[in-house]
Amino acid sequence: MEKCPETFEMAQMYSYRTSKAALNMLTCCQAEDLKIHNILVTAIHPDWVRTEMGGEQAPLTTQESIAGMLNVMSTLSNKHTGMLLDWEGNTIPW
């Protein structure tokens, strides 16, 4: 949500953006609910990927995105619970 002003013009997809906001809240709520069971809940953004939705101009292949996300998953710890990370492990502001 913090980046909406800088990204809105290039992607004015209300329903897509709204569904992502709901998923972000779900991540936060599940992280709070499940931390007493030591269950880690983290959302990972795959970035702009060359798919039917992403289009040919997207910079990442599916293989690059998946490899990056798998690498991030292998480094997660409890300090990451409730966070949104990109495919390289960088924190994305809610």
TrEMBL record:
Superkingdom of origin: Eukaryota
Signal peptide: none
Pfam families in UniProt: adh_short
InterPro entries: Fungal_SecMetab_SDRs, NAD(P)-bd_dom_sf, SDR_fam
Name listed for the protein in its UniProt record: C-factor
